[in-house]
Amino acid sequence: MSQFDIDGIAAIARLTVSDGEKKALAEDMAAILAFAATLPEADPYEEEAARSLSALREDEATVSDPAPLLHAAPKLSENAFTVPSGGIA
Fold it and tell me: Which domains does the chain have, with CATH numbers?
């Protein structure tokens, strides 16, 4: 990807990208596009191919503490987030 491509994508996403970040982003985007180009080659009905496309790592269940998130909530009800009813304004 060229610097022009990165500038255009950054503008669409409304991001400010420093000159130092542009090279790394161009390399990352090129790697993503190269991977995407291989997807049509994979048969999603083949078990091994489907497995490699669906997960990059094994899921591991862990116990987490919700207290820090709940502490940051503007309003709580019975130890859960409270959101206004009526939809988005």
Answer: 3-56 (1.10.20)
